[in-house]
Design goal:
The chain has about 350 residues and is α+β, with helices and mostly antiparallel strands. Helix content is about 45%, strand content about 15%. The chain has two domains: about 110 residues, 2-Layer Sandwich (Phosphorylase Kinase, domain 1); about 230 residues, Aminoglycoside 3'-phosphotransferase, Chain: A, domain 2, CATH 3.90.1200. Bound molecules: 2-acetamido-2-deoxy-1-O-phosphono-alpha-D-glucopyranose and magnesium ion.
């Protein structure tokens, strides 16, 4: 075991003695490890290196997570649930801080590992999509009365106006010298610019209200128990104020895709309408009492909005020379761009049916 990692794990107020720390993999942004304590063969904690380039304000981020999970715990307790399983539990350092800054400048945080839980990468049944929608809807509903200020952990995260500022800059700078070869892909972004800004204007004017949202609602960020019931939403790094529709849109982007996010065979990529319907039903089972008529009207478009934004983000990272997302091979971000664009066009083709549902 890496003694550096061991030393970091030892900074936290863990119960017992550490037996081992192992990599858990996954995520594009942070590095995630599990901590197993002596006398047990199962992990007791999750240790994460928080990506400080992506999250410039780690203290603000951890403070958000602390307060949001505290709020949810009170809700779970009032409903007779288990507050240690139905939301994340942040474990402070021995000094009482919510994160640890190591000598090399890296930032670390620990939460309790929720035992007997599962995550899924693909929504291959409508039942699973419904449950995921329910989980995300419950998270938003539990936080509907959370009125404390929250740090904006990534500035303009799902704000397409800010994304266009970054985009224009990236295309102008052409850091990796790739722009000349990308005229078709850049055209995909430009041809929809006004339409996407029109949606965001509704957030700017208040026509679509701000709520406490998760902002990274892919299926693998929903934790299930072994019986298939949702325990809680995990990966709360991007929890902040936005429109509720961004959570729906990001989930639709992830759940309804019949292919992988980075699928090379575009014939495999499309939007599954049955999964769409099931997700929306699950979500509305929790959130319908809170949503305005305008929010409900815009549910279908939210899928297009976030999928478009993801096309832009992958392509922008490719233009910038792959500085944001972890990549596994040279053109990975371009492959992701094409696969997400295929999904976007599939949503556009089925938009009338989405609205009907
Ligand atoms: C990133 O790190 P991960 O896998 O939770 C990204 C999301 C993207 C997603 C694409 C903070 O999520 O916004 O939708 O990759 N998170 C951040 O798979 O940028
Ligand atoms: Mg994430």
């Amino acid at each position: 075991m890496d003694p550096k990692i061991m030393k970091i794990a030892e900074q936290f107020a863990l119960e017992g003695e550490i037996a081992s720390v192992n990599s858990l993999g996954a995520g594009f942004i942070n590095d995630t490890l599990t901590i197993t304590m002596k006398g047990s063969d199962r992990p007791a904690y999750i240790l994460q290196r928080k990506n400080h380039n992506v999250f410039p304000d780690v203290p603000g981020m951890m403070d958000n997570i602390w307060r949001v999970t505290k709020h949810i715990k009170a809700k779970v307790e009032a409903a007779g649930g288990d507050p240690m399983r139905e939301t994340l539990t942040v474990v402070p350092t021995k000094d009482g801080a919510l994160y640890y800054k190591a000598d090399d400048g890296t930032y670390w945080a620990v939460c309790v590992f929720i035992k007997d839980s599962v995550t899924y990468d693909h929504a291959d049944s409508t039942a699973l999509a419904y449950k995921g929608g329910e989980g995300c809807g419950r998270f938003q509903a539990q936080l509907a009365d959370f009125k404390e200020p929250l740090a904006e952990t990534i500035k303009g995260f799902h704000n397409i106006r800010i994304r266009f500022d970054q985009w224009d800059e990236a295309v102008k700078n052409d850091a990796a010298g790739r722009v000349a070869s990308l005229s078709e892909e850049i055209g995909w972004i430009e041809s929809r610019r006004e339409k996407m800004l029109d949606f965001w204007k509704m957030v700017e004017t208040g026509e679509l209200p701000l709520r406490v949202t998760h902002n990274d609602t892919k299926l693998s960020n929903v934790l299930f128990d072994k019986e298939g019931e949702v325990l809680c939403m995990i990966d709360l790094d991007t929890c902040m104020l936005s429109t509720a529709l961004n959570d729906v849109g990001d989930a639709l982007r992830s759940y309804t895709n019949t292919g992988a996010e980075d699928e090379k065979d575009l014939g495999k990529v499309s939007m599954d309408l049955d999964i769409y319907k099931a997700y929306i039903q699950g979500y509305l089972s929790q959130m319908r009492p809170y949503l305005t008529a305008k929010e409900i009207e815009m549910l279908p478009f939210s899928g297009l909005y976030i999928t478009y934004e993801q096309v832009l983000r992958f392509l922008m990272d490719y233009i910038n020379g792959d500085t944001y997302y972890k990549t596994a091979y040279a053109d990975h971000n371009l492959v992701r761009t094409h696969a997400q664009y295929k999904l976007l066009t599939s949503m556009e083709e089925q938009f009338a049916q989405m609205q009907e549902i």
